[in-house]
Amino acid sequence: MKTMDEMNTETKKEAARVPPSLVSKLAEVMAALERLPKLGVNQHFNFRYVTEADVLDSVRAELGRRHVLMLPTLRDTQFEKVGTKTGSMTFCTLKVDFTFMDGDTGETLVVSMMGQGTDAGAGDKAFYKALSGATKYVILKTFLLSSGDDPETTTESQVQAGTTQGQRTPSREERTPSPWDKILLLFKLYGIAEAEGKALVLGTTEKKNAKQLVDADVLKVDVALGKWCLGSAPDEKQLKRAVAILKSRAKAFPEQDRDELQAIHGERVATLTREPGAEG
Known about the structure:
The chain has helices at about 5-15, 20-30, 50-65, 125-140, 155-160, 170-175, 180-190, 195-205, 215-230, 235-245, 255-275, and strands at about 40, 45-50, 70-85, 85-100, 110-120. By secondary structure, it is α+β, with helices and mostly antiparallel strands.
C-alpha cells in the first residue's frame, strides 16, 4: 500500500505532465505579439494598411510552437453585382468560423468573422479578397493587435512621409494582455456570455469594475467559472464538457478548490441520475 507521500509525489508528477490549456496558450500568444506597422501602400487612394502577410507571419510561429492550429470553415457567402461608370463591380460578403485547435489537449475554440471584398467585372477575385480580410481581422481582433495609429488623427502628410505611430516600438505594458483580456478568453472557453460572466467575476473578486482586476483574480475567476459550469450543467453531455475543460485547468487550482470541484461534480452526477429523462 502506497504512503501519502508517495501518492502526493505521483500526483505532482502527473500534474507536471499536463500541458497548458488552449486559453492559456492563446493568452501567451497575445502577450508575445507586437504592434504591427502598416507596410502595405494603396497607390491609387494613397493610404497605408497592414497586409495579410504581415498579420499571418506575426502569429504563425507563435501558434505553431504551442501546437495550436487555426482552421477556417465557410458558413455563408453572398455575391452582389452593381453597375459603375466604367462597367460593373462584384461585391462578396462571407462569414467564416475560425477554429483554434489544441494538439495537446484536444480543446477547440471557435471565433466567427465577416469578410467583404470587391472586384471589377466578373469579380473572380472578390471571394478571395473577402476571405483574406476575414482571416486578417479575426487575428487582429482575437489577439487585440493594432497597427499603432488612429485613422482619425493620422494626416495625409504622415502617410506620405511614412511617420505614422504604427512604426514606433511598443512598450511591454502595451503588449501584455490585461487580466480582463484573459478572463474574456475564459468566457469563450467555458461558453459563458460576457454579461453573465462579468457579474460572476465582480461577485467573485469583489471588485467594482474590470479595470480594478489584477492577475491574481484570473485564477479565482477560473475556479469560479469551473464550479459554475459543473453546478449548472443541464445534462450529462454538458457536464462531461465541463469536466473535459477542467482536466487541463485544475492543475493550477489550489488543492481545496480541486476537492470542492470534485464534490460538486459528484453531487451533479447524483442529481442528474435521479432526474427523469437524464441521459444514460
